[in-house]
């Protein structure tokens, strides 16, 4: 099953005031006091917001609006700027709302941030992609597919379209048999390495519909038969963002923690740091950070905290480091 990122309160749809206990009041008051009067107590904001679980973020967002009559995100947007302010705004709303905002930002301005788009919509469970699509429409009164259709094109758009369908099959040993594995290996080869030109749509469909258990067997049999893994076959047959996105999608099914670690590495690679991608990845995968951090250390030989210290600074670094430390075990 794909990694799931949303807390149970979102699946249950119970975001009414009755769902919020009194234990949240202290956190809401701490945020209010940090933003009250002249100047902002950034360290106090970090202390409160960085340690909230995804479920508590839902509750704090709801209670703050209920008590103070203002959306917490809007308050923090006014109080804090830059990458620090943006990270706080993502932490001030439920995870599904934050992801909608991330997609909007990926589509904003000159050029589209394809990496951020495929990292949000790719590798999701069927129920989470449905929640995301519904929330996007609730906020922006626009279908998520139409939003992305206006931003993307070609095979990359086709890949995103498959992701948005939420059509991963449930693993069934009576259906996902050895014969089914052999059939998918043959189909994958015919559409990729065994064909002049690649049928990307066919490959996307196999990857998107196959449960991880089945895809793992397909990958193993493909390697046994053709001496390369599915990862290598995709790397050889595709290029550009389409290749990056497809490798990410496959990775999220077969090696999810390593794949997220590589996404963080990508955000910090080259000249300059992609702060938005870094922020979004760390916040989105908060529930799985212990495993991601272990994979990151294995991949790079450095701790995630060491990378943050090198790549970013100020309150922004303090916030992300506090969040990582709070979720390290």
Low-confidence stretches: none
Mean pLDDT: 94
Query: Outline, from the CA principal axes?
Result: globular
Based on the structure given, which CATH architecture of one domain is correct?
Orthogonal Bundle
Query: Structural class, judged by helices and strands?
Result: mainly alpha
Cα(first) to Cα(last) distance is: 22 Å
Q: Quick one: CATH superfamily of one domain?
A: Annexin
Residues in helices, as a percent range? 55-70%
DSSP helical segment count: 21
Give a quick account of the main beta sheet: strands, pairing sense, barrel closure: none
Please characterize this protein's 3D structure:
The protein is an all-alpha fold. Among the domains are: 1-93, Annexin V, domain 1 (Orthogonal Bundle); 255-329, Annexin V, domain 1, CATH 1.10.220.10. Helix content is 69%, strand content 0%. It is globular and about 65 Å long.
């Amino acid at each position: 099953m794909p990694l799931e990122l949303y807390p149970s309160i979102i699946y249950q749809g119970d975001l009414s005031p009755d769902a919020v206990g009194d234990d949240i009041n202290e956190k809401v008051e701490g945020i209010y006091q940090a933003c009250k009067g002249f100047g902002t107590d950034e360290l106090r904001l970090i202390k409160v917001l960085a340690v909230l679980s995804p479920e508590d973020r839902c509750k704090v967002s709801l209670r703050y609006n209920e008590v103070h009559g203002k959306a917490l995100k809007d308050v923090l947007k006014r109080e804090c700027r830059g990458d620090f302010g943006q990270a706080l705004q993502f932490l001030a709303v439920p995870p599904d709302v934050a992801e909608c905002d991330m997609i909007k930002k990926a589509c904003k301005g000159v050029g589209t941030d394809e990496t951020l788009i495929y990292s949000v919509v790719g590798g999701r469970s069927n129920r989470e992609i449905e929640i995301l699509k519904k929330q996007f429409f609730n906020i922006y009164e626009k279908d998520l597919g139409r939003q992305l259709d206006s931003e993307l094109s070609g095979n990359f758009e086709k890949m995103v379209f498959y992701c948005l369908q939420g059509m991963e099959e449930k693993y069934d040993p009576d259906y996902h048999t050895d014969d089914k594995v052999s059939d998918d290996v043959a189909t994958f080869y015919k559409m990729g390495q065994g064909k002049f030109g690649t049928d990307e749509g066919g490959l996307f469909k196999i990857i998107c519909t196959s449960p991880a258990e089945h895809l793992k067997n397909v990958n193993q049999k493909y390697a046994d038969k053709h001496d390369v893994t599915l990862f290598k076959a995709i790397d050889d047959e595709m290029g550009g963002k389409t290749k990056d996105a497809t490798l990410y999608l496959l990775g999220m099914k077969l090696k999810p923690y390593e794949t997220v670690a590589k996404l963080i590495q990508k955000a910090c690679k080259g000249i300059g740091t992609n702060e938005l991608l870094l922020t979004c990845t760390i916040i989105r995968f908060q529930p799985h950070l212990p495993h991601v951090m272990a994979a990151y250390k294995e991949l790079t030989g450095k701790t995630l905290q060491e990378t943050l210290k090198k790549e970013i600074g100020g309150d922004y670094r303090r916030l992300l480091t506090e969040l990582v430390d709070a979720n390290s075990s």
